[in-house]
Every structure is written in C-alpha cells, then in structure tokens.
Amino acid sequence: MTAQILDGRAQSAAILDRVTTQVAAFVAAHGRVPVLATVLVGDDPASHTYVRMKANRCAKVGMQSRRLDLDASISTETLVEKIRELSADPEVDGILLQHPVPDHIDERAAFEAIAPAKDVDGVTRTSFAMMAFDEGGFHSATPGGIMALLDAYDIPLAGRHAVVVGRSPILGKPVGMLLLARNATVTYCHSRTTDLADHVARADVVVAAVGRPALIRGEWIKPGAVVVDAGYADNSGDVEYEPAAERASYITPVPGGVGPMTIAVLIDQTMKAAQARETARAARLGLTAATTGPE
Fold first, then answer.
1. pLDDT tens across 58-82, in order?
2. Which residues are catalytic, by number?
3. Are residues 89 and 182 in the same domain?
4. In this structure, is residue 230 part of a structural domain?
5. pLDDT in tens, 1-21
6. Do residues 24 and 271 lie in contact, with contact meaning Cβ atoms separated by under 8 Å?
7. Which GO biological process entries does UniProt record here (predicted)?
8. Which among 115, 132, 155 is the end of a domain?
9. Domain carrying residue 146
10. Which residues are annotated as part of the binding site for NADP(+)?
C-alpha cells in the first residue's frame, strides 16, 4: 500500500480562489478592502517568514495586510495595549498575533486582548469555547485547516478512532474537539504518554501535532490509517514519513500539507469577519440585507 497524498497546496488554492471572488464582491458592495492586522514580536526568522507568507496571500486575494513589528523586549502590558488598539480600530477586520512570542511575555494575556469578533486565528478562550460547543465563531486556524483538508478528500470520521498526539491550546486540543464534533472517538496523547506506540497503532486517524521530528515511527501506523502531520521542526514533521506512507491510506506531506491550509483558513476567516462586521453595522443602521453585500 502506498498512501494517497493529502495535497494542502491544491486545496488551499481552491479556498483562496473562492475568497478572491468574495473579496471583489465585498469591495464592490462596501467600498473598502478587508484588513488583516499581523503582530510580530522579535526577530525570529521563521516567524518573519510566516508573516510575510500571510501578507503575500492577503495580497493575492485582494485583502490588505497591516503589519505591526514590535521589539523583542516589549512588555506584556505594552503588547496587550497594542493589541487592544487593533481590536478597537474600525478599519481592522482580523488580528493575528504570530506565535511564539518571547519567553518573558504572557502569551495567553496577549491572545485574550484580541476581540473575539476579530480572532481570525482562533486563539482566544471565547473562540475555543464556541468551537467546542459547536456555536460558530472562528476555528483555530491549523485545526480548521486540517478539517477542511479531510473534508476535501471525503474522509469519513464518524465512528472512527482518532488519536491526537499533542495538547497545545491552539492545535492539539482544538483539533480533538473538532474531530469529536464529527462523531469520531478521540484519544489525546502527547510526548509523555506511556506506550505511545500502542495508542497510535490502534488509530484510524492520526493527527501529529508536537513539533518533534520523527516522534511517530512509521511502523506504528495501522494499515489503512489516515495520517495528518501538523508538526514542523528542522524542515521535517512529527511522523517518519516514508515508512508511514507505505502503511497509511492517506498522508500529508511536510511541507505542503497542513501548512498551506492554515494560511488559507486564516484568510477565509478574515473574510468572514469582515462580512460579519458589515452585517452587524447594517443591523445597527436598520439597513436591509440587500445593501450589505454577499455573505
């Protein structure tokens, strides 16, 4: 058996094509361009690359990206103040705080300064709660991208055993909740799980989200399982790719799998945030739906 590739590049391109059409209609209806504000703290080269890629994708679909670069020595209090200013800015539709921030900063406090209506990266407690209770809101971008990729290949989830390896609040935990909402049976594991190989070997769907190269050995993969590798470190994923691909039915490459989907979901959710803001504005002004543009 050789696994079929879950092609994140192709599927993200399809999402961005759709958003491009929506942006053009939005601009025609409202006379303004949707705006994503990105906040980058420090000089981490990888973070600079990621923010630049997101700005390029914004430009590709016709959105505006407003970038705020802050010194690595900034305090939590000042960072929170800067993010609250963006939350209050009527010209900004979505806010992204690039992860990770320097160690001395309280990242959770910074995330919580993002207004939920502009939390297009799905990092606040409000977004997590709404997602967990299936009450709308914005998905964490990488988990949302994973689900969109699985959907694009019509991979069934109901009744299947999904093992999530990783427990971060913006990746492992939320993707498990999204899988649970699709009626999968979910087991959470992590780098300190005892008998990790046994848990993985029983999984119909494996989501690797630790950031430790080759943590998951190829021989652990159950024949026919679906493997989604969301880890990335030293230019490789969490899963030992070649032997895993010989056993799995579907697998994501690294790079080219989950990463492009993350950016596509971020852009898509920024579009949704802009539409929601205009719908709310119209409701306040008593305008009809016909004047608010397409949803």
1. 999 999 999 999 999 999 999 999 9
2. 54, 98, 121
3. no
4. yes
5. 689 999 999 999 999 999 999
6. no
7. L-histidine biosynthetic process; methionine biosynthetic process; purine nucleotide biosynthetic process; tetrahydrofolate interconversion
8. 115
9. 141-258
10. 166-168
